[in-house]
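Tutorial sheet, problem 5. The two components below are modelled jointly, 851 residues in total.
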Amino acid sequence: MKRLLFASPVLISLIFGGFFLWGLDPERDPSAIPSVLISRPAPEFSLPEVAGTGVPGFSRGDLESNPEPVVVNVFASWCVPCRAEHAVLTRMVEEDGVRLFGINYQDEPEDAARWLAELGNPYERIGSDLEGRVALEWGLTGVPETFIVGGDGTVLYKYVGPVVGETAIREFTTALEQARREGTS
Amino acid sequence: MIPEIGQFSLAIALGFALVQSILPMLGAARGNVLWMRSAHATSLAQVTFTLIAFAALMRSFVVSDFTVLNVVENSNSLKPLLFKIAGTWASHEGSLLLWVLILTIFGAAVSFFGTNISEGLRARTLSVQAWISVGFFSFMIFTSNPFERVFPPPPDGNDLNPLLQDIGLAMHPPLLYIGYVGFSIVFSFAVAALIEGRVDAAWARWVRPWTLASWISLTAGIALGSWWAYYELGWGGWWFWDPVENVSFMPWLLGTALLHSAIVTEKRGALKSWTILLAILTFSLSLLGAFIVRSGLLTSVHAFAVDPLRGLYLLGLLGLSIGGSLTLYAWRAPSLEPGGLFRPVSREAGLLVNNLFLATATGTVLFGTLYPLFVEALVGERLSVGPPFFNAVFIPLMLPLIILMGLGPFLSWKRADLAGVMDRLKFVLALSVLAALVVWYLSEGGPVLAYLTIAISTWLLLSTLLEWAGRIRLGKAPMRESMRRARNLPRSAHGTTLAHAGLAVVMFGFVGSTAWKYEEVVFVTPGSEISIAGFDVVFEGIERVIGPNYVANRGTLTVTRDGEYVTSLLPERRNYPVAQYSTTESSIRSTLLGDLYATLTEPSDATASAEGVWTLRILYEPLVFLIWLGSVMLILGGALSLSDRRLRVGAPRRTPAANVATTPAE
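Model answer (structure tokens):
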């Protein structure tokens, strides 16, 4: 028994070593973000509205059979870059007629409503993902994150991080235009 | 020519390390004094040749020798001289060279200053140290040659990541490495003692100064890294539980445990096998840190460029050193004779509980850091473990430890009187509760945990000061008597007081800047006004500034309070054209009460740009200065303790010299 106790450190370290050996596989890239959703149907979900925002929540059904692609943006009032991104998204909605849905991620409804009252609400629908479960289904890696969902409910594109700054906006709008073209053809 | 000299020097140093890894060990086993003493010369030779190699690389950086690949990748002719020098250890290869330099310096230091250590133990320790040297020299020569040439040489270098061009970060790796590598000596001592089969009070006394020196340096390195993240990354935080931060924090936690368990082994001969295990594990965690940062095992903003061969080689090194030493431990440690007995309430028991908490905390951080890897291996899912996990698990482990920390120094060895101690501390307890209530009254709400932390930190601070005051009979005896007692008190006692009080001060900084932080993120145009934490801030506008290797947009913010001018904040966005990298230079006004912290981000799109709309992030972080102040107290406390006569290297030995020709006990 005593022997086993003294041997336990080396045994534990061997187990750790096994994991490390596995982790060294050169094929494995820990910083690669899995994009399992791209070109696949959006996950099954249903999100209630965020009280006080005046717009309804949405579910998977609302993403199917749309005439044009919908932009789904994951945001939160506590997220600093979201604030900068908000201006960009608002402009896209107002000037380019983009249809924008929001997933309010792990946010108190009062905070979210106050945030939108202050900055304006560009979202057509907002679903409250208080627990963050749905965002997980979407493969969220951080907030903000923005998806382009085709008219048939297929996820076409995903942008990680805020769509802020010229390069990011250009990259995003290019993807959106391409999605629109594919939708009509 | 000079880079080749550097490369040859490394090979020669490896040769000496090989000799040192065998000869003194054999000498100690056979009682051959000459072989044992050969370590003296070989350790000196190792450090000399490593120093030549290091100087050669540094020269290549200083003169911007772009025929050396490492210089091309990490330097630029326009870079300020200080950062050219710091570029020597900014890359994977260069930092490895710094690592072995420190490794050999420590080896030579034991050889030269460890004259009070028994000859057999010293020879074995130096041999073990040389095994580590062999591992790292060969790693460098076979996989990471810092002197690799490039032909044809490019006209200029790629520049160093601008985030790293900072005085705080230039000093961060050397301090961290002195800490990491310093623990290698403690490791070598532990392995040598296991081989010798004897651990006694003298062993613990020899180990203590090396542990303490490494701990001081690691503390300084971590504090500096945290300070750098605070003012350079522009997020306004000082700790992010990033894997790379965690791997430096784990040896610190375990090293702190070792520091305390070695006291028990020294004073009471108890906890021997535990102290040995801690010595092995502390350095193992340092090695693990090197492995994680350099192998690409986990994602982190700080990780080095990745090469699978390097990862495998390092894992092999890890397996040999950690696996080997722990196997030796499993074999030898059970036969170490048990030490002195103690009661459940005693100084020893207090230190043991301290160790259990610190070890559990280390395990928690280790588990949280590696959890994503485990999950990915077993389930195939990718996830990350962030601050919520660490805060939820780590803080509840630390708070009881800190309560105990206030109590511990009052406990006497062998058997303590808890009721008596509590009686002495009842006023401290009352004052701690009062402090939390006062803060509760003054603040406009906050988490319960924050008030609890205030109470506990006050408890630690006051009980530490009371213990010190009791020792010098402050207020109980005439002032002159107290002064005399203070002078006669060992420096290590003053050091303990200073370090423990320092931790309390750090805690105040933690809780203040976490629980009562104000933050505003707003769009500003020239003339915009923002109010935060009683300050009125006016955004005056942006001007263009040209630096040595960057161009910047500098914002001017005028801060007033109740109409009185307070300060001007000048946050910048810098663009480094060569490195093609932008950085955020925050502007901070720091006072004892709190920091006002501003960062700027450029306009979000073309329209905003035309209108001149910048994003301003402004924070008020109360008491954050105390984190740095407390860290300095921790470092000075450690240094004061290190300067204690009892620990001073070369101080007259108190035990008779051990027999030179020790036979390994089985």
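Marking note: Residues 1-165 of chain B form a domain with the Four Helix Bundle (Hemerythrin (Met), subunit A) fold (CATH 1.20.120). Full credit if you identified this.
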